[in-house]
Amino acid sequence: MKVRSASFMLSALFGAAIVVAAVACRPARAPEVGAEGDGSAPASESDGGVSAEGSAEEAHPQPVEGASGSTAAGGASPLASVLVTDPAEVQRIFDAASAAPKARTKANGVAGAGPLAKGLREFAKTAAAGMKADGPLITGKLEEKKNVQTAVTLKPGKCYAIVGYSNNVTDLDLYLLLAPGILSGQDTTDDGKPVIGKTPDAMCPVAKSAVKYLLDIVADQGAGEFAVQLYSKANAVKKGK
Q1: Which of 4, 69, 144, 217 sits a CA distance of 20 to 30 A from 22?
Q2: What is the DSSP string of 28-89?
Q3: Is the pTM value of this prediction over 0.85?
Q4: Of the candidates 180, 176, 115, which has an alpha carbon nearest to the alpha carbon of residue 149?
Q5: What phi and psi values does residue 95 have, to the nearest 5 degrees?
Q6: Model pLDDT, residue 109
Q7: Residue 178: pLDDT above 90?
């Protein structure tokens, strides 16, 4: 019995040694592959822990919506209503206006007998009620999606309206701009009778000196001749009142 027990113990010890040796000689475990089995490392090892979705969001952030026409892009308070508040879009409009050809001007043109001058005069009776024509008539002929520009100077102590008219341009747009890219006012209709500062919401500058603006005139829909006139009246509101 003693001999058999000793033999049994020797056999057990010999078997355990074989198991230990086998474990010691087992090869190291291969690294885990990516979800598609292509051998790529997990996101935490390959990109600092930022997932592919997170990287895309950081590279292409969502645009921030602007105020609803209360403040012009660039932080300056507008003189009239504005619909475009995205700074990038305002800058695009300003750059396009700066590069556009100049419109024609005609002294006392609004008093002429032509259909454009007559139509503008009639419309201005309500669009610029109580105001008189200030400066030359701005005229031209536009193809659809084309624009022209002109300089408009607004002075303190006055209130203004800019009135446009066309029989064939079905959506004539006006943008009043300041360098380097500030929108101070625009028309808010989609027709051939645009107005900036329409009665009773005239533009009354608060600047202490005259300011030169860039007026962009755009044929958004339709093509043909147009006329635009600046109107003004004395500002009845005294400073400090």
Answers
A1: 4
A2: PPPPPP-TTSS-PPPHHHHSTT--HHHHHHHHSPPPPP--SSSS-TTSPPPSS------HHH
A3: no
A4: 176
A5: -65, -40
A6: 96
A7: yes
- pLDDT band for 46, please (50, 70, 90 cuts): very low
- Name beta bridge partners: 219: 172
> DSSP string covering 97-124, please?
HHHSPBPEEETTGGGSSSHHHHHHHHHH
More confident residue, 53 or 141: 141
Percent of the chain past pLDDT 70, that is, above it, reads 67
Q: Lowest mean pLDDT of 14-28, 141-155, 222-236, name the range.
A: 14-28
What is the C-alpha to C-alpha distance for residues 149 and 14, in angstroms, rounded to an integer? 100
Q: How far apart are the C-alpha atoms of 120 and 136, rounded to whole Å?
A: 13
Count, residues in the chain: 241
Residues 53-91 pLDDT 10s: 333 233 222 322 333 334 555 556 899 999 999 999 999
And the tokens for 228? Answer: 């635009």
CB atoms within 10 A of CB 97: 21
CA distances from 134 to 82, 119, 162, 196, 218 (A): 23, 17, 10, 14, 21
- Structural domains in the chain, CATH included, are 1-62 (no CATH), 87-234 (2.60.120.380)
Torsion angle in degrees (nearest 10) through CA of 219, 221, 227, 230: -70
